[in-house]
Every structure is written in structure tokens, then in C-alpha cells.
Amino acid sequence: MGLFSNITEKLNPKKPGEVVAKIAAITDQDVLKQLSNVMDPDLHKDIVTLGFVSKIIITSDANQFYSVAFEVNLTTPACPVKEKLKEECIEQVMILPAVKNVDVVMTARATLLKAPSGGLDSLAQVKNIIAVASGKGGVGKSTTAVNLAFALAKSGAKVGLLDADVYGPSIPLMTKPKPVSTQSENAQLVEPMESHGVKIISVGLFNQGSKASVLRGPMAAQIIKQFLSGIHWGELDYLVIDYPPGTGDIQLTLSQTAPITGAVIVTTPQEVALADARKAVEMFQILKVPVLGVIETMSYFICDGCTKKHYIFREGGGQKIAREQGVNLLGEIPIESFVAASSDDGKPLVINYAQSQSGKAYTEAAAQLVREVSIINAGDVGALKQFSLMWK
Amino acid sequence: MDTARVREISQIDSRHLKIIWTDNKEQIFDVVSLRRKCPCASCIDEWTHEPILKAEQVDEKIRPLRIDSVGAYALSIHFNDGHRTGIYTFPFLRGM
Q1: Helix ranges restricted to H, A12-74
Q2: Fewer CB atoms near the end CB (10 Å): N or C, chain B?
Q3: If you measure CA to CA, which chain A residue comes closest to B3?
Q4: ipTM tops the 0.85 cut
Q5: Does A176 touch chain B (CB under 8 A)?
Q6: CB distance A317 to A268 below 8 Å
């Protein structure tokens, strides 16, 4: 409470020998007392006990009327009773004498506020965040995200995989993750599932069966925000995020909420895909997220009768866009029947078909990715990953 | 491309913010001017880039409540007039 009383003293300095005013000055304590009548219907405690109230600022005008402003920090941005709570807060504070105006800011970043120096709690121990994105859908982005994640894990890194494709979460099918029974240190954070040592979380894991997610953009973006702040990742060397295709709301939210180390752009070789991949590269440039490289999928097909490479979707598209954008081509992944089969069976290529052409290509791509990440990190020495500065 | 990021961010006095960038450049910002130059769509017209917010509409007494990082490329300032939509990219700040 020391902080609060300091603010009040600054705003309403007590002069020595001051005669008590006709209307007693309102203090932070009075405001908190009123707000302790506001209950959170889900947590069954009042919002003051829960520590939701912060930054109380009381100002008075010449006529001895008071304006009260404060923040209410909810645990979830999608709180269904947000408006109701806000109304109750205003109602309670208006009860105080001579209060003319109440200004409540509802926020939902409780985890952030608990760690003002570090930022998002759940990402605090994550060293690198890799975005796997594409302009066009259906280019094998999720397959790439999965295989990069598992290849990184195989090389000994601690890896997490976040399926941010709200509308078409395919990671659960591709990896068949299992829940791990650990006693959570933080009851407010969700434990990710695991598959071959990779921590996995997906919207698909919360959506029973194969129901479609029919959501408007803002809702989808909110889900993503919750995902970024609500998962107990623990210590990770790499968090691979499987972006939804395109350059919309969710992609922006992801890049604005999490401190992305760099992005990998996935594309097939033909011009139709390249045109969209360029847009994805441009989006990351606008957001100042370094592009770590391009991975070309469905590069060619080797039939079992001969060893000739058949360039079904044209040749060299990935190389072309990489050169054009001044980034590296991290890999060319051929079409092999077990790329699709391994995804359908939940057995990642780099684990189960490590010696296949595509398995080797992904393993090599992951190794090159690691090099690119360390180059970025070397140039970023001393940069603050996330910060919050409270103005005094 | 200017890729410098924030190395240190601190409050100097009641209206000045100091940022030391990763290339060691130091800058001091007046928070009132920052509010006046807010780059958000309700302060600057998205198409014509004409300012919508007039300098005189911003009170000299305006102060931030908090300043947060946005991704790895910008910061946002929540001002005590309730305005919080401006995203100040690092290159934008460095060009001020």
C-alpha cells in the first residue's frame, strides 16, 4: 500500500496544521474498501483480495469534487463478465462522497503485471521463438513446423511447438501428443502435452473431435493471446510457432505479442505460392521480425521406377524467392509418399524416416536454422526482449 | 534496414524518457511530444498521413501510465488520458 499512499500524498499534499476540510479527502483506502464489494463470480473472491486493482489515481477539482481512475487487471482477456464488473466498480466508487467521475481501465494481462521487468510469464524462460509461416495455405507449413521442432529436439534442444492455426489446427494429428502428469507450479498456466520430448499445445487439443472453429478475427486473436500468455512452457531453447497461412489478424497479434526471434517462410515452387510468400516476407519486414530463411516443399518427386527428379510444381522457386529477398534457402523437401503418411500417422519424418530424402532435408534445414538464429542473436546482444516501464 | 533495438529504457524525470539503443545511440524523448506524434490511425490519417490530432489538443500535463514492448520492433505507451493505441516502431523513434 506504500505505493498508493505515495501517489495520494503527491496529489493531495498535507500541509502542516491544515484544518480538516468539510468533505473528508478520499484516499486509496476508501476506494479499495468500496471495490472490495465487487466479487469475481468465477473465482468467488473480491477483486481487491485477488489483487486485480492497481494504479488508483485520485484527483480533485477546485470545487472539491473528485475524479477516481484505476485499473482492473483480469486474468483472461475473454472474461465474459468484464462489462458487468466494470459497471459494478463504477457503481461502488460513485458511492463515495463528492466523487464526480470514475474512470476504469479493464486490462487482462495479469501475468505481465506480476513480472513487470520480464513480460509474459509463460515465455520468460523461452530463449528463441521461431515463426513458421506461409502466404498460401496447403504448402506443408505444419509439416515443416513439426519436423523442424522434432529435428531441433533430436539435436538435444528443449523445444516447444505451438499450433496457432486456429482455423485448421493439424499438429495434434501429426504428432499425437500425450498429456504429461506433472504437478503444475502455477495453477493459472496450462501444461502443454508432449510427443517425443517436444512440448505441444494446439487449439485442436481444446476443441473436442474435429469440430470446425468458426470464429471472427478478434475472437481468434484473443485465443492466440491467451495461448501465448497461458501456457507453462518452462525452459525452452526454441519455441516453434505454426502460423496460420496468410497475413491477417492472427499473424499480427502473434508478432506483436511475442518477441519473435525470426521467421521461416514455407512455399511450394510455383509462382502462385511465391507471390503469397513474398507478402509474408514483407509482413515480417514491416514487423521487424528477421526472416531466417525459406523452406521449399514439394520440390520434386522421385518415382520408384527411375531416379529422375520430377519437378512437378516447377523448379527453383524457393531459390528464386530466397535470392530475391536476400535470405537463405534452408531446404528443398521432395515429395515422398511417407511425408504425407508420417503426418497422418502422427510419426514425424525426422524421427521415423530420418534416412529418407525428405527426413534428411528437414534435419539439415533445422541445422541451418540454428545457425541463422545464432547469427541474429549475436547481432542483438544486449537487446531487451520484452519490457514494461511503469511511469512514476 | 535499421535493426537496432532497445538496450535500456528508463524514466529521467516526470516528462522525459531515455532509451539507449543496441548501437549505443542515446535518445531522450519528451512524453508530451510523443503523445502529439502518436502514429495511430485515430491520430494520423491512414491514407493521407495528415495529422488528425492537433498539438494544442494535447495537455502539457499528459503523462504515460506505462510503456510496454510490442513484439521485437516497437513499444506502446498507455497515456493517462486513456489513449493507448499508438505503436511506436523503433525506426520511427530513432528518426525523431
Answers
A1: 28-35
A2: N
A3: A288
A4: yes
A5: no
A6: yes
